Amino acid sequence: MDDRKIQIFLDSLLPLFKAGVAFTIPLTLVSFALGLTLAVITALVRLSSWRIPKLIAGFYVWVIRGTPLLLQLFIIFYGLPTVGIVLDPFIAAVIGFTLSVGAYSSEIVRAAILSIHKGQWEAAFSVGMSRGQALRRVILPQAARVSVPPLSNSFISLVKDTSLAASITYVEMFRKAQQITATTYEPLLLYCEAGLFYLLFCSVLSALQKYLEKRLDRYSAS
Q1: Do the beta carbons of residue 190 and residue 181 sit within 8 Å?
Q2: Which of 5, 102, 103, 210 could make an S-S bridge to 64, C-beta 3.0–4.6 Å?
């Protein structure tokens, strides 16, 4: 690597890191928090006996899981303005990622709830709990422990998926790499450098995931 490339690499470290911390991570956290809330609601509706809401929830999951995330972002950001709905890039990205996380994670939450033995329901009913109380106090806490590993994987995947927000002009880390590339004409160097930051963020999250799983395993064993 010649001196010019080394200098470009060093000069772009801080801008890329700032973009990751100031834009990529907040987008990930907000989208995942909202998406997880939507996932729990969707899972509970799909497990309920409410026919119409159940059909709507199932349709939502079917559509989101059956179409590309990039296409969904384009519809939200570029398509909705044709019907008078203009959204800020951050809001559009949050909506797109929230819908995606909600659909995929709802299947994780639903499977986790179904994995709890029916004896847990019966035990809760035997002490006078209603179905809502049993769900809130007995079933969901156990399902949460079961769903932590797959949900953690979804969160880590979302960190990488946020790079798609660059396609709707949101200046997260990948978009910043594109901007620097446009002035330095070093796409291989800049995109590899951005990849290193994504790798760093995901490695830290993977370590936190393992720590959380160990804590939960110790709690379950006790």
Answers
A1: yes
A2: 103
